[in-house]
Amino acid sequence: MAVKGLDIFKLTPKTNCKECGFPTCMAFSMKAATGGVPVEKCPYISEESKELLSEATAPPMKTIKVGSGDTEKALGGETVLFRHEKTLVNKNLFAVELSDAMSDADVDAACATLQKINYDRIGEMMFVEIVAVRFAADAAKFAALVKKVADCGKIPMIVTTDAEVAKAAVAGAGAGAIIMGATKDNAAAMVDVAKAADAVLGVSADSIEALHDLVEEIEKMGYKNLVLNVGETSIKEAYANAVDIRTAAIKGNDRTFGYPSVVFANKLAPANTNLQIALASAFVLRYGSIIVMDEMDFNAALPLFGLRQNIFTDPQKPMRVEPKVYEFNKPTGNDPVLVTVDFALSYFVVAGEIERSKVPAYLAIPDAGGYSVLTAWAAGKFGAGVIANFIKEADVASMTTSRKLILPGKVAVLQGDLAEELPDWEVIVGPNEAMQLPKFLRDMQA
């Protein structure tokens, strides 16, 4: 960082008031210098100093908000190039492109499809967040289409280089819309439109050098709510630009390039759905903050959304579910109790198989540290004592008259100890694999 902890410390009251949440002014200053806490947390630093320090201690890549209310999403804000270095903080967004040249029937069909293309994976609902609307010829129809997109709960991306058309369209787009159309020829006019609408402005240029110059020019106009087009000329150029822009921002601390990137995969591979999916996969990994495609169906959504979730999961924090007792298939009060760990993937796999069995049951989830079954057992976080204490503390016995407690097959070794801890329960060793649960539960019920 350009600013050191001691530089910030000199501006604090040095009273160790603890109002910032830190025990001393020095502790706060050192944390603020790394960007770990905003300098605004100190109520006694002057506004002028806050403004200077906020810029100096901010992440090298600016966080840009798009959408509003329930649709609001954050882009950028990254501090590392690779997930394993720390974590990636704001996942990329997917967009599908429409145009005023399309028939009303085609637009309605596309919108209806987008509403259906969503699914829940490991507790996260995934869907296409943005619809890019490209101007073709009819300004009135274009503006109406942008409004329709906003009304459908999607974030509109207005794709046009005509400032007047953009101005008319953004009026119905709602807060947080994206205007994708600033070039060297219309930058001033587009900045005025974006400022008036408080919209995110997309910047495009013929080369990465020209893009850098144009962003500098727009920043001098006082506008920094930007996203950058990595280029539409060739796949090779777009990929290289995406990598170079992010590397310059993160490693070179070049704040001119410290903005999220937009990738028009549909322009890099026109009318080639399979190649667009492949490109989207590549740009999820390499710095496409918004990835635009011609369409999105389940064949594309399942792998792309899953890849995105995996890449943007914090490797420092296990994916966990809340430790508690979950009910499945409307238990009647005389149903078996299964036990597994709080690792999210384990939970959702087991939960899915219990639901598939159609057998009413309870699933007890103790605090196992967010690890898988064998890892938690090896670490001493999923032993007989842990399970028994949870069964008692959650008062599972009051939920069901059944006293059948089903263990994961991979920790069958716990059966004896758990039977001693819970003498009123029949401890049963379940299958090794979750996929075997439906037959196991149905056979038990028979």
UniProtKB/TrEMBL annotation:
UniProt feature coiled coil, ranges: none
Name of a matching Pfam family: FeS
One example GO MF annotation: metal ion binding
NCBIfam families: PRK04165.1
Gene3D superfamilies xref list: 3.40.50.11600, Dihydropteroate synthase-like, Electron transport complex subunit B, putative Fe-S cluster
Organism: Acetobacterium wieringae
InterPro entries: 4Fe-4S_dom, Ac-CoA_synth_d_su_TIM-brl, ACDS_complex_subunit, Dihydropteroate_synth-like_sf
Protein name as annotated: Corrinoid/iron-sulfur protein large subunit
